Amino acid sequence: MALMLTSVPGTNDIFAQSKEYPFREPVFRYIIQTAERVLRSSGAQMIYTPIFEYAEVLQKGVGVTSDIVVKKEMYTLEDRGGRVLGLRPEPTASIVRAYNQHGMKVWPQPVRLFTWGPMFRAERHQRGRYKQFHQVDYEALGSADPLVDAEAIALMVQIYRELGLKGLEVKLGSVGDPEDRVRYNDYLRGLFRPYAQALSEDSRVRLESNPMRILDSKSEADQRIVAEVGVKPMLEFLGPEARAFHERVAGYLEKLGVSFSIDPSIVRGLDYYVRTAWEIHHSRIGAKSALGGGGRYDGLSEMLGGPRVPGVGFGIGVERAALALEEERVQIPADPAPDLYLVPLDEAALLEALQIAQGLRPRFRVEMAYAPKNPRKGLEEALKKAARFAAFLGEGERQRGVVTLKNLHSGTQVEVSPAELAGHLA
RNA sequence: GUGAGUGUAGCUCAGCCGGUUAGAGCACCGGUCUGUGGAACCGGGGGUCGUGGGUUCAAGUCCCAUCACUCACCCCA
């Protein structure tokens, strides 16, 4: 087809017949509703925050050295008053902003919130990564207890379980406290500086700005160097408090029966994360296997200019969950079939059919043919839609003041007045 | 932003060594068929072969450019 008007690359229409599995509306809805069911059962409350904020909120939220800001991966726009706004790349900053703005500190703590919706990143898209993508997000604010971390991880795993996914891998790590990271980064700089010339260009920059990033560099040369120098993992640099915290989270998870592995090299792209960090991976959903991740961000609120509010939360990538469901061929519940399919047999019956339909909706799911059909065609359509009943409306019925109601499961049919239809459908 | 692959009907695709008016299946619409189980048969609409240029007597086919998509890199959900 010649190019006409299309959606922006990396954005997608979500509808039932979409060619791409992650954008089939029933799949999408299944994931969001399942997540919502689990999270509501935990007492978390839904919050919808705007999809755009003052860019400053989002920039501070993702951290100044984060690539999202550095490489301009956040969409920004200017409104008429010259305010610089940004489309959210993730919702955590908005939720922390809302917590402070609405005085949620006087609520019973922790305040546990969840949301879902579109997120935006100005990146080149690929499988499982889009300019507009969707995320289910949970945040527990106002508690620094490791029990809250363990609950968040357990809830996240429970959501994937409820979805029917099996091939999950929970990787738990800790990024320590800020001072631990300073020590670790100094250690890494000292370790890699002698190899600076051999490192990739990207990693040479990282050497000063964010040496932890060198560890998961994709460059083979970098990886060879990493292997050669024998890097100690971040976990070994935890201070006593962060270490104890990490061990308590791990201990709670074991007692909760959540299986996980310790990943000592887990790294966070965002500056405000402290201590607990985790990712949930799935095999074979593309170049990136992460279904979602989470972590603790006790410093975020202060960074936004508010009081210190400890918090922990996670994000679930909806499209990535869908890819995993497709990969595992998990059966998605089918949309309910119509209770009744109305078949007008002549022009005069069209309006009558619509009147009957409107009388039965919304108690029953009622669909109809919008042009006269012969009975065979009408029946065929009703069967294709897997309707429970079909009703024929023709000249004979009109004279007798009835419709012919056919039970498509049993094959039996009766003539009933329109007023009696509801009783037969119930 | 970088690299590779792919572009023929709404979808999945065929189209030989360049050769007449570009095809099939599915889907859609109509008929056989105002009277009953997803059928069958017949018919129909729908394509500037992604776009532009070049080579050639002749281009869906070869060449160049461009655009789009896909995958991957960077980064991330």
Structure description:
- This protein is an alpha+beta fold.
- The chain has two domains: 21-177 and 238-327, Bira Bifunctional Protein, Domain 2 (BirA Bifunctional Protein, domain 2, 2-Layer Sandwich); 340-425, Anticodon-binding domain (Rossmann fold, 3-Layer(aba) Sandwich), CATH 3.40.50.800.
- Helices cover 38% and strands 20% of the residues.
- Strands 1-5-6-11-10-9-7-8 form an eight-stranded mixed beta sheet, sandwiched between helices. A five-stranded mixed beta sheet has the order 13-12-14-15-16, with helices on both faces.
- Helix 5 (146-163) runs parallel beside helix 10 (240-256).
- The protein is elongated and about 95 Å long.
- The mean pLDDT is 88.
- The chain binds one RNA strand of 77 nucleotides through strand 6, strand 10, strand 11, helix 12 and helix 14.
